[in-house]
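Input record (one chain):
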Amino acid sequence: MGGRAVVVGGGIGGLAAAIGLRLIGWEVTVVERARVLADVGAGISLHANGLRALDALGVGEAVRAVARPQYTGGTRTPDGRWLARMDGAALERALGTPIVGIPRAALHRVLRAALPPECLLVGAEVSSVDRSHPTRVRVPLDGDALDADLVVAADGVGSRLRTQLFPRHPGPAYSGSTVLRAVTEHPVALRTDFELTWGKGAEFGHIAFADGRAEWHAVVNSPAGVRPADALAAMRRRFGGWHAPIPALLEATRPDAVLHHDIHELATPLPAFTAGRIALLGDAAHAMTPNLGQGACQALEDAATLAAALATEPTVPAALSRYDTERRPRSQSVARAARRAGRMGQQLTHPLAIAVRNTALRLAPSRATVQAVLRHGDWAPPRLPLAR
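The corresponding structure, as predicted from the sequence alone:
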C-alpha cells in the first residue's frame, strides 16, 4: 500500500515519520510553520528504544556517528555525594547499545538529510484539516490546499489538530515545573557523560557531547509563566553553590543561549491516537514530562510503528487501528511513569521525603538502576518492508 501523506510538524517525530513513510513507498510533504530552520534546542539523551527505532528507519548509524555514548554518571546531591551511579556498560551488554547524548540540532540535521529537500515545506501553517471526504484529507495552506490519503499530526504539545479532533479533551496541563537549558559555548572538562543532581524542588543535569561541549538543564518548581529578567544570572544564584562541574557549565554559557520553557503534559490521556485518516504522533499524542528522557524516544517509536503498520495492513484505516492499538498503551504508560519519576525526584520539597528517597537510592543495588532503564528502553522495533 502506498499513497500521499502530509506530515504536520518538522520536529523529531515529524521528520522520523516522513522518513519511515518514504521508506515504504509513500509520497510525503512535511509542513513546518517555522520560516527559518534554526535548529533551536539544547540536547537530549536517546535510549536504546529510540536508537532501535532510528535503526529501523535507516538512520541509526548516522545518529551514532555524531552522538556521544553515556557510560559514566548518575544521580547526586547538591554537595556532590552520589545517590546512584549509572553503569552504561551494563546497559550496553543488556541492550546492545549504550544511551547516547546528542545536540538536538545535530539530530535534526541527520533526519533532514535523509529526506529530499522538496519534501519540506517551510513557513506554512496548518491549523485545521477537512475530513469530509471519506477516503481523502484536505489540508488548507494559505489559500491553497494539499490532498492526502493520510495526515500525520506531529505538531507538538500545543497541537491544533489534536484540538480539532478531540474538542472535549482538556489539552495540555502545566506540570508544576519549568525548565531552563543551554549548550555551552565551548568544551567543558567533565568527568562523567551524564549527571542529574536533585535538590529541594530543583534538578540540575548535564549531557556531554562528542565535541566536548555539554548541554545543561535546570528544572525547578515554579508557577507557570514566571520569567527572570536575566535567566543565566538567576541560574548562577540558584545553583552556583552546587557541586562541580555545575558552576563551570554555567560559566561556559552565553546569556542569550539560555532557553526557558514551562513543562506541559497530557495529564489526561487521549481516548485514541487516530481519527479517520489522521494519526497523532509524538507530543501531539502523548506529551510527557522529561523525567525519564523518553519524550523523543517515544516519538521515534511512533514513527517506526506507523510506517510498519502502513506497509503491512491492506488499508489506511486498518493500519491506523493497529498503530493506535500498539502505541497508545505503551506511550501512555511511559508518560505516567515519567510523571511519577518527577514527583519522587525533582519535585520533592519535604525534607523527610527527600531523606527517605535519598536513602533508598543509596541502598539500592546497581542492578536496580539498570532494571529501571530496561523497563522502558528494551523495546523491539517492527521490521519495515522497504518499497521496491
